[in-house]
Amino acid sequence: MEEPNIDMSDLRRITSMIQNYSVSCPEKPDKRYLFQIKVYWLSIVTLLSVLVTFVFCVLWTILFKLEDATSTHCGYRVKNYLPTISTAVGNYPVQRFIWTLVIIAHSPIRLIVVGIYYQYYTSIIKPSLHWCAVLLRFLSTVEVCSLVVLSIFTSSDYYSIHEKSFVTFICASELNMVISSILLKKGRITKTVMTKLEVRSLKYKIYFTVFNMTSFAIAGYCFLRHNAYCESGVYTFFALFEYLVVLSNMTFHLTSVWDLAGVSLVIDDNLNLTYR
Questions:
Q1: CA 20 to 30 Å from 235, out of 8, 42, 86, 95?
Q2: What is the pLDDT of residues 151-200, one digit of tens each?
Q3: Phi then psi for 241, rounded to 5 degrees?
Q4: How far is CA 232 from CA 83, 111, 123, 220, 274, in A?
Q5: Are 255 and 198 in contact, with CB atoms under 8 Å apart?
């Protein structure tokens, strides 16, 4: 029986095909992700939900409860045109229910982002300043928790608890904004290079920090002046600048979409919550 002729060039070609196939075949991943979402979208959705709820509560109160919502110790002789945030979100059943529900629902997501930010800070700042990252994590957690408490315990029913929670919220948020802005500007590891998104984020962080603190100072002045002199319109300006304090705080936190643009939150097949 005659043996077949095997061309060496054909043999080499077949061998090459086998090798190429083995290289191109994808390896099975170690883990499969059951759920994955960009922190970018997570931040936008959570903060947008709070913003929409805030606007709804204020507009609904203006449309249907304005006279009652703007009355103060000065009586009805002093005309006011805007309710305070505490009144708009806490004094009436519909607004109180919606606001409290949204704040409680969005808080776990905020706390997850706080944890991701901690990892972000520790990866880009000097090791000697890692204690600042720990402090920022603590302040952010206090900020979220105090917001929940002051939303549940309204000023009309639990004034003492609401007042203390509000003061805690303001102190934590102001310190958080100032420290994080300074840390990202002065405390970065020398060899790290800021991306265009990080440059933009820091720019707006500084802007909204200054704007927030200025608005808070003006709101405080208007509040004290209204209590002292009962002048028309001063209480309205107090409410307006109070709105600006809250809105600038929201936009400050929205800069996370630039800092954490490439980060995703994932749940693997073992139901472990991680980010990458």
A1: 95
A2: 999 988 898 999 999 999 999 999 999 999 999 999 998 777 889 999 99
A3: -70, -25
A4: 14, 41, 52, 16, 53
A5: no
Domain that holds residue 130: 32-275
pLDDT tens figures, 64-80: 998 889 888 887 667 88
Domain count within the chain? 1
**Residue 218: burial class (beta carbons within 10 Å; 0-12, 13-18, 19+):** middle
Cα 108 to Cα 14: distance, rounded to the nearest angstrom: 57
